[in-house]
Amino acid sequence: MEISALEKEIMEADLSTQEAQQRFKQRFLKRGGVLDELLAQLRFLTPEERKVRGSSINRLRELALQRLEAVASSHSSAEGATLGDPTFPSLVIQPGGRHPLSMVEDRIIRIFQRMGYNLADGPEIEDDWHNFTALNFEPDHPARDMQDTFFIDPAAGILLRTHTSTVQVRVMERQSPPIRILAPGRVYRNETISARAHVYFHQIEGLYVDEGVSAADLKATLGYFIRSFFSPHTKTRWRASYFPFTEMSAEVDIECLICAGEGCSVCKHTGWVEVLGCGMVDPQVLRACGIDPERFSGFAFGLGVERLTQLLFGIPDLRLFGQNDIRFLQSFRRYGCFT
Ligand code: DAH
What we know:
BirA Bifunctional Protein, domain 2, 2 domains, three-stranded antiparallel sheet, alpha+beta
């Protein structure tokens, strides 16, 4: 039960009869009472959380004692009932903390800002053109399926964006190169919610288009990012991959931080964890967005913010990010100046 609910109960309990006072004692002050039970649960918390919660529980106990004393003294004094000592400090208000996803997003943004990237934004409710067609998805590409995509109006192709690559298209449509943008945002997919999948999560899209941009630039940029984000010693592995909107396409793995490459459940015993997708922007995509692929080239990448946060902090279950549990949020308070 929540501390604040118990506080309310203590403050409002009817103590007008002997019987009621007895019940009150039983509930709050005797062995096996609610406070006793809460104290017993402390052992499941971290030492830091234990301290905060333990002192709240002790204050509840003092508050309960105070109320009983107040009743006793009101019987013996001519002044009637008093409601405890007004100078008694109030219960600790439990503040939350910055969400770890926001902290990690800021950290990523700062690293790319150092390389001259600007922020760009786009809507979460999108159309088929920006989410799929301009990005070179074939009409029958499986990602367009209702199984994966939340459609708002299927006939009109209005949907919740499934990735932040939509912002690439929007920026290229309205701006000519050089373009160097970073687009953080929420994306949606029709998945069964589990420890590993959710119906919404956060991505950061990056795009760099100019004359003469090459795969060497891509590799150097993302290598710098990974070393800055994790550590200068983090090992990376580049794998050839496929995305409709890039040609060549690659995925980048880092050596698993949880087991140092030994193999564990997080890396599915491979020693490596995928952290991003990237590639050279397909000339088809440049053309669809009104940019001349004969003159310009570019690279793009997509990062999963949840994935990076999980790796950095060792968070096992994706669902924790969306539950707004104050104990989860408080456990990141010590990283207040982290970014
Ligand atoms: N949009 C991809 C996804 O959601 C991620 C991605 C991969 C973005 C490669 C890119 C890229 O810009 O080049 O899975």
